[in-house]
Amino acid sequence: MEEKKFCSGIEDDRLHEECGVFGIYSYDGNEVASTIYYGLFALQHRGQESCGIAVCDTNAPKAKVDSYKGMGLVNEVFSSEALDKLKGNLGVGHVRYSTAGGSTRENAQPLVLHYIKGTLALAHNGNLINTPELREELARTGAIFQTTIDSEVVAYIIARERLKCGTVEEAIRLTMDKIKGAYSLIVMSPRKLVGARDPFGFKPLCIGKRDNEYIITSESCALDTVGAEFVRDVLPGEIVTIDKDGIHSDTSACLSGHKTGRCVFEYIYFARPDSVIDGISVYQSRLMAGKYLAIDHPVEADLVVGVPESGNAAALGYSMQSGIPYGTAFVKNSYVGRTFIKPGQKSRESSVRVKLNVLAEAVRGKRIIMIDDSIVRGTTSDRIITMLKEAGATEVHVRISSPPFLYECFFGTDVPERKQLIAYNHSIEEIRQILGADSLGYLELERLPQIAGGLSICMGCFTGTYPLNPPEEDIRGEFQE
Ligand code: SF4
């Protein structure tokens, strides 16, 4: 049996997003595979375990789907030869990190499903909470699953609903009545590209335009990368269909605004700082978090530094608010992927040092305020503080741009079980002592809606109250055997 992914090794004490999606329809009949490839590059931070692209030609008499996927980073999986073989003006791509379902090639997406109405390709970001019931229901009526991921359940339900209704978007609408949880989906049928966002809007999804091409993708940074202009976000609960007649919208599944629950962690950590989600700049949001930390947890010091990358903007915000100079204390090795061989316990090398080194000249003899986005188990933070002190920092004051993690996430983020969370087991003062910090301050809970521009957000991993009731049992990783 595979080890459950959300209980991953202590060396990697960061949270991970599950996936990124990118779809495009070219009305001029241009090949789209290379644009998807570059779009996935821009979304690589959302998933580094596997990736894939599926394309089809809407002008061919009978549409067929070409697809290619594999384990690894986008540049590791796709060669120019592999891309050249993907012919079509309509396509969808996916990058994946697994929070449910194992890390295997079969579980890579897009999933391509051949059924009586033709072919569907599906790319999914998020996590469903009623997968066991849905999967059992499908299995009882003859479904044979090729993968262990909930996205296949979604694809099967869409295919079945499509047999009862006239269009794929109607089938997706009916499917949305059955599936519960977090999802931003892109579905490619032979003639259409359809994007759908769950009614709570947990995961981002937006629309872009480049000449005579429409794009649907997870983050606006992917639009910038391929030279497309941002059109708008897909609304929570909205289905957007792009076909030969243009772009159509179905908002019948949308909830009233205050019931929605965007994942606030997109702003704190997951999304790229150059993305704008639901009208709120991720960079501005992090800057604000830093400013609030300076207001709520001031301390005298000589230098404010961020733990790269997501701590940097918050550190700048702290500096702007406090007047304490902002500086760089860390050099990050950008070439270390998630899958590098981790040093053994007796080895003198450490994973943290392989990824991050301290600029001793910048910190020696100084009182440092170090800003990080979160503390999960605490196993990385203590090593970084030790590194700063070994490099000559006289004091290290830690400020965290999120509140303490106290609960699991069931909606696509690999927050580990509660008993592994340092804040569940210890008070803030105890955590400070464990980490060896001179002081410790977290972002106050009431600041979260403020950094998200007043949007209705999910704060479940901090409060235990989620936009919709979580499953009674922790079903993450349920189907890996
Ligand atoms: S529980 Fe936390 S990580 Fe999960 S969706 Fe809500 S805010 Fe995001």
In short:
It catalyses: 5-phospho-beta-D-ribosylamine + L-glutamate + diphosphate = 5-phospho-alpha-D-ribose 1-diphosphate + L-glutamine + H2O. Residues 19-245 form the Glutamine amidotransferase type-2 domain. With 481 residues, this protein is an alpha+beta fold.
Overview of the structural elements:
The strands form six sheets. This protein has a seven-stranded antiparallel sheet. Strands 5-6-7-8-12-13 form a six-stranded antiparallel sheet, with helices on one face. The chain has 17 helices and 23 strands. It is an alpha+beta fold. It is globular. Mean pLDDT is 90; it is low at 1-11. The N and C termini lie close together (5 Å). The chain binds iron/sulfur cluster (SF4). The site of iron/sulfur cluster has 12 residues, from helix 17.
Name the ligand types.
Answer: iron/sulfur cluster
State the name of the first-level CATH class of the largest domain.
Answer: Alpha Beta
List low-pLDDT spans.
1-11
Average pLDDT works out at 90
Radius of gyration, in angstroms, nearest whole number = 22 Å
Spatially, the strands of the biggest sheet line up as: 3-2-4-1-10-9-11
- Could you give a short account of the major beta sheet? 7 strands, antiparallel
